[in-house]
Amino acid sequence: MKPVTAQGFNSLQFKPLIPQPLHLPNHFHFHLHLHFIPSITTFPFSQKPSPNPPSVKTLKSQKTPNPHPKTATHQDDGIPIDDVKTLAKFKSRHNYISVLEVSRKADHPFAGSRLLLLDGPGNIHSIYFLFKTLTHTYFDVLATLPPILPPGPLGILGFGAGSSAKLLLELYPTGVVHGWELDPAVILVGREYFGLSRLERDYPDRLFVYIGNALHAGVKGGFAGLLVDLFSKGRLIPELQDPRTWERLKKGLREGGRIMVNAGGDCVESEDMGRDGRLVMEDTLKAMSKVFGKEEVRVLRLGNVKEDSSIALTGKMPDVEEWKKGLPKSLRVYAHMWQPFTG
Q1: What is the pLDDT along the chain (343 residues), one digit of tens a residue?
Q2: CA distance 188 to 190
Q3: What are the contacts of 202-206 at 24+ separation with CB within 8 A?
Q4: What is the Cα–Cα distance from 63 to 91, expressed in whole angstroms?
Q5: Do residues 306 and 312 lie in contact, with contact meaning Cβ atoms separated by under 8 Å?
Q6: Residue ranges of the alpha helices (H) in the chain?
Q7: Closest CA to 136 of 298, 272, 330
Q8: Cα 146 → chain centroid
Q9: Taking the mean position of all CA atoms in its chain, how far away is CA 48?
């Protein structure tokens, strides 16, 4: 295990590296579980691989959350299979793993990206662009957490190939990230195809990656914040529907710490057809509210359908204007989109 540094995220030290906002198109809908700004992408947590490897013929995108819902449209735009190249495909102890590369010539927001697919349904767990930081997916929403945290390290539970870590390290020059991933093969894939080796080389004192059960994560003095992105077989792990899990995670925070959670939703394609993604999302949010209180659980709904996908945030609602001051202009719109949990 690598030593835990005393440094961490300090909202007073944030210097976003992206000076101008990005303008996202209104006509993309991503239904294969990684919303084109945002939705779910899943991370492995099972001990047994799914019986059938993923088979992907097209990739479909989910709608970008639109601050002006009246102007939103809803349609599917897949990526033609001719624009997708398979770089790797194999079975690890925990997952069926596929790495895809989308052609730069593709008429799609993911053009030029690499995608990590896991699980039987072929859910996307990570996305990587070589020449840009923002992903135009829900990972960008997760990257809004640091400015509202106390000083200290941030933990990523469900590290995948490093999509969230890349954003945090490149956007916030002083932040320290500790990431947990169950499957060592996913970390190896991240190093080979998703730029993780470069991140580890460039930020040796700010990035620490661990192989193991993310629910056992901890650092001396507690986390300033946690990003929770834990999926197995195309659904949130069942432990997240148990209030006792959130009690343990809460105890791992330092004073003033917060948790931001990819709570999934209808967008999730589970291997178990009897498990409805929306109901699992609701049960997860209810478990969180039992521990943090409804007044300290807020939800950002993604996609065009209210329950399509959600990100949850713990703690009292921060001052939006102060929050925006610590964010790149491209991400400030998300500070306005949080609503109280009323379930």
Answers
A1: 333 333 444 332 222 332 222 222 232 233 334 544 533 333 232 223 333 433 333 333 333 333 333 333 333 457 888 999 999 999 999 888 999 999 999 999 999 999 999 877 677 899 999 999 999 899 999 999 999 999 999 999 999 999 999 999 999 999 999 999 999 999 999 999 999 999 999 999 999 999 999 999 999 999 999 999 999 887 899 999 999 999 999 999 999 999 999 998 765 555 555 566 789 999 999 999 999 999 999 999 987 654 478 999 999 999 999 999 999 999 999 999 999 999 8
A2: 5
A3: 202/169, 203/169, 205/5, 205/7, 205/176, 206/5, 206/7, 206/169, 206/175, 206/176, 206/177
A4: 31
A5: no
A6: 138-142, 163-171, 184-193, 196-202, 243-251, 277-292, 320-325
A7: 330
A8: 14
A9: 23
User: H or E segment at 95?
Assistant: none
| Alpha-carbon gap, residue 287 to 307, rounded angstroms | 17
Cβ-contact 304, 67 below 8 angstroms: no
Parallel/antiparallel/unpaired status of strands 253-264 and 223-228: parallel
DSSP assignment string, 191-248: HHHSSHHHHHHH-TTTEEEEES-GGG---TT-EEEEEE--EETTEE-GGGGSHHHHHH
Gap between the Cα atoms of 264 and 300, Å rounded = 11
Is the pTM above the cut of 0.85? Answer: no
Q: Can you tell me the distance from the alpha carbon of 213 to that of 253, in angstroms, rounded to the nearest whole number? A: 17
